[in-house]
Automatic annotation (TrEMBL):
<dbReference type="InterPro" id="IPR001426">
    <property type="entry name" value="Tyr_kinase_rcpt_V_CS"/>
</dbReference>
<dbReference type="InterPro" id="IPR001090">
    <property type="entry name" value="Ephrin_rcpt_lig-bd_dom"/>
</dbReference>
<keyword id="KW-0547">Nucleotide-binding</keyword>
<keyword id="KW-0812">Transmembrane</keyword>
<feature type="domain" description="Eph LBD">
    <location>
        <begin position="1"/>
        <end position="179"/>
    </location>
</feature>
<keyword id="KW-0675">Receptor</keyword>
<keyword id="KW-0325">Glycoprotein</keyword>
<keyword id="KW-0418">Kinase</keyword>
<keyword id="KW-0732">Signal</keyword>
<dbReference type="GO" id="GO:0005524">
    <property type="term" value="F:ATP binding"/>
</dbReference>
<keyword id="KW-0829">Tyrosine-protein kinase</keyword>
<keyword id="KW-0808">Transferase</keyword>
<keyword id="KW-1133">Transmembrane helix</keyword>
<dbReference type="GO" id="GO:0005005">
    <property type="term" value="F:transmembrane-ephrin receptor activity"/>
</dbReference>
<dbReference type="InterPro" id="IPR050449">
    <property type="entry name" value="Ephrin_rcpt_TKs"/>
</dbReference>
<dbReference type="GO" id="GO:0030425">
    <property type="term" value="C:dendrite"/>
</dbReference>
<keyword id="KW-0067">ATP-binding</keyword>
């Protein structure tokens, strides 16, 4: 379940930055040349220590407790910047703050919880700029266990030359499915390394639970259904179709013969004969018109 994807909007993101000469929102294009909105900061020539904050809008967690944050960014190699100050950094900090409503602005620093210091696997140089190479880094971090209605993410720059290309926030869930004639509803995946979450299934219409082995499945931390146990069975007068129980009619499609004759097969409890019309591929219940013929 995606809670935030900055690439999905071409309008201004309108995130809050502090101070005003820190993070700046600009228009750009992604690796597929699709227009996107990004944030960047590059005050590496300043001799003073940097402390620039960027806070996203409020993100409702929508039932998610274990949240994933995927960042795509570029970062400049300090050694490739002529005359750079000794305070130049090649990292930035990722933080969050829980709340039940939109805080509206960057709040006090002590309220934030640090998730991690983010570093680039590949930093770009002046030569990369000349060749228009985008060395895009992707990092994923996890937040949990959340309890409030939502949260803000924050990015703290302490002297890097960095551009946030995309921010995607999501949680994992096992999607609703039907297994062994039982419906299993959407289930939020729990915390990492937790035991599998057991989920009981509800029998589809016109079916009954097997009392000796009711339907169950397990939702893994990665959002996958595992270990199906038990089942439901179609009620009397119904037969299993495609993930459902369908009513049995007096006529049922059988075989694939193109022959044109009927065969008397047997007597029912009502004294009627069952016949097979192989031309029309139907079972019929009634008085046969003729005995078996070739």
């Amino acid at each position: 379940m995606v809670l935030l994807n900055s690439k999905e909007t071409q309008a201004e993101l309108g995130w809050t930055s502090y101070p005003s000469n820190g993070w700046e929102e600009i228009s750009g294009v992604d690796e597929k040349y699709k227009p996107i909105r990004t944030y960047q900061v590059c005050n590496v020539m300043e001799p003073a220590l940097q402390n620039n904050w960027l806070q996203t809008g409020w993100v409702a967690r929508r039932g998610g407790q274990r949240i994933f944050v995927e960042l795509q960014f570029t970062l400049r190699d300090c050694n490739s910047i002529p005359g750079v100050a000794g305070t130049c950094k090649e990292t930035f900090n990722l933080l969050y703050v829980e709340s039940d409503k939109d805080l509206g602005r960057v709040t006090r620093e002590e309220r934030y919880t640090k998730i991690d210091t983010i570093a680039a696997d590949e930093s770009f140089t002046q030569g990369d700029l000349g060749e228009r190479k985008m060395k895009l880094n992707t990092e994923v971090r996890e937040i949990g266990h959340l309890n409030r209605k939502g949260f803000h993410l924050a990015f703290q720059d302490v002297g890097a030359c960095v551009a946030l290309v995309a921010v995607r926030v999501y949680y994992k869930r096992c999607l609703a499915t039907v297994q062994n004639l039982a419906v299993f509803s959407d289930t939020v995946a729990e915390a990492a390394f937790a035991t599998l979450v057991e989920v009981r299934g509800a029998c589809v219409n016109n079916s009954e639970v097997d009392t000796d082995s009711p339907p169950r499945m397990h939702c893994s931390a990665e959002g996958e259904w595992l270990v199906p146990i038990g089942k439901c069975s179609c009620s009397a007068g119904y037969e299993e179709g495609h993930s459902s129980c369908e009513g049995v009619t007096a006529e049922k499609v059988v075989g694939d013969s193109s022959a044109s004759h009927s065969c008397r097969v047997g007597c029912t409890s009502f004294g009627w004969w069952t016949t097979l019309d192989t031309r029309r591929k139907l079972w019929r219940v009634g008085k046969p018109r003729q005995h078996c013929s070739s």
